[in-house]
Amino acid sequence: MTHLSESELIDLVEGTLAAPRAQHATACETCRMQADALRGTIEMTSAVAADMPSPLFWEHFGARVNERIDAEGSPGRWFLLPRFALVGLGTLGVLLIAFNLVVAPRDPRPAAPSTSGVVSVEDVGPPAEADDLEQDAEWAIVRAAADELDIDAARAQGLAMKPGSVDRLAMELTEAERAELIRLVQEEIKSGA
Question: CA-to-CA distance for 154 and 169, rounded, in angstroms?
């Protein structure tokens, strides 16, 4: 039979433990010693009288607190100046960050100069080899995340594409990326036909 749990020991000391478990406590040396120690602790703590303040203490407590607060007085104007300075500096910092996010270019790479405005597929160069992608550590992380992704759960969490997202992303492509996209789409059309 297992030893008494903490709650069973309390029930034993209070006399509310079921008879079969109480018999275990009389037969088991470990449980009996724990119950005796608990009884001794209860006897020691009940012998100490708790010092409670008089009822008058609580009646006048609020008034004394208010008197102390009033006695300290207001901090004065000199104390408010650092607050305004901190608020001003914080506001300035937020405005600078917002300005940097709005005005700063999103793509730090310079755009490739184009004389005619049209890039041919030959100018782009060959696509990355599939073997290189298999050994690329960054792509391994992306593949691992995509393997575990449940599209329905992602949509439920609000991770779905919004209308117009593809158009916006296509407009942000560089000329070389657009040419590669056109080549891939044409290749897919030819293979599907």
Answer: 20
